[in-house]
């Protein structure tokens, strides 16, 4: 039996959200640390694109697709926030922006969980259980 891609996709997003929440909380924890540079992770879209698996070629005449790359989630320095810029201490963390990201991550976790729950219930209904 083939695996259901929705569960795999939800798992990847949950992993990405978990890493992003860790990065955001580290930013908030270091808001007063001199010369600390705020960080963020690569967008989830790039994780999806790097883990895309094209359809298999069954004939040599078919167009070849690119093979899947790595689905690594990269942590990178965040662009400088125009509202606060760089503080006197050299710190680039904008606490309001980080708290906003934290709320966004929470909403995405909840949506992810609700979609998986609804799909699971639909599968159980289809199986008559």
Identify the notable features of this structure and list them briefly:
3 helices, mainly alpha, about 130 residues, two-stranded antiparallel sheet, single chain
Query: In total, how many domains does the architecture comprise?
Result: 1
The major β-sheet equals: 2 strands, antiparallel
Summarize the helix and strand pattern as letters: HEHEH
Radius of gyration: 20 Å
Structural class: mainly alpha
Helix content: 40-55%
Number of strands: 2
Distance between the termini: 19 Å
Uncertain runs are 65-70
Helices, by number, come to 3
In percent, how much strand structure appears in the residues? Answer: under 5%
Describe the structure.
The protein is mainly α and 129 residues long. The chain has one domain (5-127). The chain is built from three helices and two strands, in the order H-E-H-E-H. The protein starts with a helix and ends with a helix. The model is unreliable at 65-70 (pLDDT under 50).
